[in-house]
Amino acid sequence: MNDFIAARSQMALSLGFHIVFSCIGMVMPFFMAVAHFYWLRTNDVVYRNITKAWSKGVAIFFATGAVSGTVLSFELGLLWPEFMKHAGPIFGMPFSLEGTAFFIEAIALGFFLYGWGRFNKWFHWFTGVVVGVSGLVSGILVVAANAWMNSPAGFDYVNGQYLNIDPIHAMFNDAWFSQALHMCIAAFAATGFAVAGIHALMILKKKNVRFHMQSFRIAAVFACVAALLQPLSGDISAKDVAKRQPAKLAAMEAHFHTEAAAPLIVGGIPDSKAKEVKYALKLPGMLSFMVHSDFHTPVTGLDKIPEQDQPPVAITHYAFQVMVGLGMLMLAISLCYFVAIWKKRSWLQNNWLLRLFVLATPMGFIAVEAGWTVTEVGRQPWIINGIMRTADAVTPMPGIVYSFYIFTAVYISLSLIVTFLLYRQIKMVDKLYDVSPSF
Amino acid sequence: MIYVVIAYLWAAILLYILLGGADFGAGIIELFTSSKNKQYTRTTMYQAIGPVWEANHMWLIIAIVVLFVGFPEIYTTISTHLHIPLVIMLFGIIARGTAFTFRHYDAVVDNMQKVYNKIFVYSSFVTPFFLGVIAASAVSGRIDTGAGDFLSAYIFSWLNWFSITVGFFTVAICGYLAAIFIIGETKDNNSRIRFIRKAKQMNLAAVVFGALVFWAAHSEDIPLDEWLFGNAVGVIALIAALLSLVLLWYLLLKKGKVYIIRVLAGFQVTMILLAITLRHYPNIVILKGGQYLSLMEHAGQEKTIWSLAVALLLGSIFILPALFYLIYSFQKNKGQWH
């Protein structure tokens, strides 16, 4: 492994780690706020216990997300100094605003976690909502900064110089909305399915059924609404990417040849040398329709992109397939759940629906990681699309390989410890929160 | 507008040293507490920093964001040539933040607590040590942007006695700040006396390492005394720090108001930072061969600085009242929870 690949791997690892914790940290407060609201309105003590149990999880995830985010703010410079030297002043606006949002989040979390019984109960509830809202704002801002790398704006690039910098315009670049929307809904779906799945498993095991059932319902509604909306946001994203980054779209679809009535390629093994996809299901005209809302309009293929500007096709294509496939599965489960709520109440008593949710526990997060892979790998070889190559941005310091190994070890151990802590939290529900031993 | 940005950068660094420093100090004191008093120390500290520790560390993020948005060349020079101490500091930050949270939120209390404690106290030591090393290296004139070989480009930029002694000095300052802070949190006279003793020890350590910093600066040809005593403001600041230290110990032994004592300790650190930074202002990084990276000359374009300043000002409107209210409410009824 050379230093350049090591630097990219370390960045991918750090972001891939951080994205899970930040999704949970920004979505869980909303689940808590709902449970908390029910507790304040109904005085059903189970809801208070759910809120408290979840808030412990949030504290663990928030702290881990906060430190991994701090690490990222340094890693940008540690690994990509040449990029930060030029990009920092241009795309820094969302980061400086994000500092505020994150700060508010930390303050509100202090109020919320330590404020039980100390403040007016609605003020206390409100601080929990502030945690969620500021977390969401942070997320949107960070994604806006990433969107700028896909869709650079707010400066003139003249002879290698970055002139007439306009940070506000850079923040509201063409990609910020579609990317932020897609990411936020993904965060809700992923966290929702993960939480609902864990509670569904506990229901199936007949442990503290009331506690887990009420938790499950809150998480499942969020998850299912998000999973229903996500294909729509995905459609916006796909049309947007086709317009701004035809190379990325072509790699996602493994679309080698520009053609009219372009087929949508499902699955298959892309062969970059032979420029074809083996064993794939091809739906004629569907790609044209998806991108241009018309079955015949040609879609730019990789053949129109110079060889040295093409992203890796196989990884991007596989990651895209995984994301879409899992998204469809979650959509199907959501539809079942809504049918169950509105038409077939008996389904809710049936174990098969709960089993489906258990099965879906990791799906959302796998889809998030896959989607992140699509957007990052699909942008290669550029770090600033069309302006600066990733290889030109990397630090001159040798030995990044070792740094990558150590970071890998640290993040793996952290993941193991967090999983272990979560397991212990769930195991202790019996002792800490169960108020209905008869169940 | 550039002055607004610089003021925020300075304030963020100061607040990080004061609040984050006291926070690190809590772990440092725990490290140097005998095992029979450890549990009590831990509980007192936890009550004091639990609700605010996340917020304390935000100042570092503010400082780093101001640097990379407003002064990208300074940020990238530091992060390229001080890569190694920065990475070690980051591991310290990861280990400390997670261990602190995990030990409180682990649903089962068992031997894992020992693991969390160990990680917490050692990383509380390592992190401020390397922060000190990084700060010292930035002004030590050892960063060689033209170096060809690995050692002089990435190792000797920070591995020298001056940086190391400043690292220890930073650790002692953090421990001192924490001990002074904790004195006001104690409920009985015995523990009050114990923390006063801790504060004395940390104060002594700071003096000893401070002297070693001068020795190291002298032997490595860093004109530290000229920086500190070369201008009137620096001298006045240091004299003020010294006087307030005398006053602090007088009040402390007289059982004076804890808030005055805390303010005095904060004042000393502020004066030290002022004395160090003022002499070089607006330069904040000194490179090998006497070149400087300056906050004025190496700032971003005007529009960037303008929008950064607006973002910081806007942010303060939200952050400061909320933060004051947070600190105020948990100080007002301390000990009434958990």
UniProtKB/TrEMBL annotation, chain A:
GO terms for biological process: aerobic electron transport chain. The chain crosses the membrane at residues 15-39, 59-80, 100-116, 123-149, 180-204, 216-233, 318-340, 352-372, 402-423. It is found in: Cell membrane. Its main location: membrane. It comes from the Bacteria. The keyword Hydrolase does not apply. One of its GO terms (molecular function) is heme binding. GO terms for cellular component: cytochrome complex; plasma membrane. InterPro entries: Cyt-d_ubiquinol_oxidase_su_1. Pfam families: Cyt_bd_oxida_I. It is a multi-pass membrane protein. Keywords: Cell membrane, Electron transport, Heme, Iron, Membrane, Metal-binding, Transmembrane, Transmembrane helix, Transport. Belongs to the cytochrome ubiquinol oxidase subunit 1 family. PANTHER family: CYTOCHROME BD MENAQUINOL OXIDASE SUBUNIT I-RELATED (PTHR30365:SF14), CYTOCHROME D UBIQUINOL OXIDASE (PTHR30365). This is Cytochrome bd-I ubiquinol oxidase subunit 1 apoprotein. It comes from Chitinophaga ginsengisoli. The lineage of its organism: Bacteria, Pseudomonadati, Bacteroidota, Chitinophagia, Chitinophagales.
Automatic annotation (TrEMBL), chain B:
It is a multi-pass membrane protein. The chain crosses the membrane at residues 6-32, 53-75, 81-99, 119-139, 159-182, 202-218, 230-252, 259-278, 305-328. Pfam families: Cyt_bd_oxida_II. It comes from the Bacteria. The keyword Cell membrane applies. It is found in: Cell membrane. Its main location: membrane. Keywords: Cell membrane, Membrane, Transmembrane, Transmembrane helix. GO terms for biological process: aerobic electron transport chain. GO terms for cellular component: cytochrome complex; plasma membrane. InterPro entries: Cyt-d_oxidase_su2. The keyword Ribosomal protein does not apply. GO terms for molecular function: electron transfer activity; oxidoreductase activity, acting on diphenols and related substances as donors, oxygen as acceptor. Belongs to the cytochrome ubiquinol oxidase subunit 2 family. This is Cytochrome bd-I ubiquinol oxidase subunit 2 apoprotein.
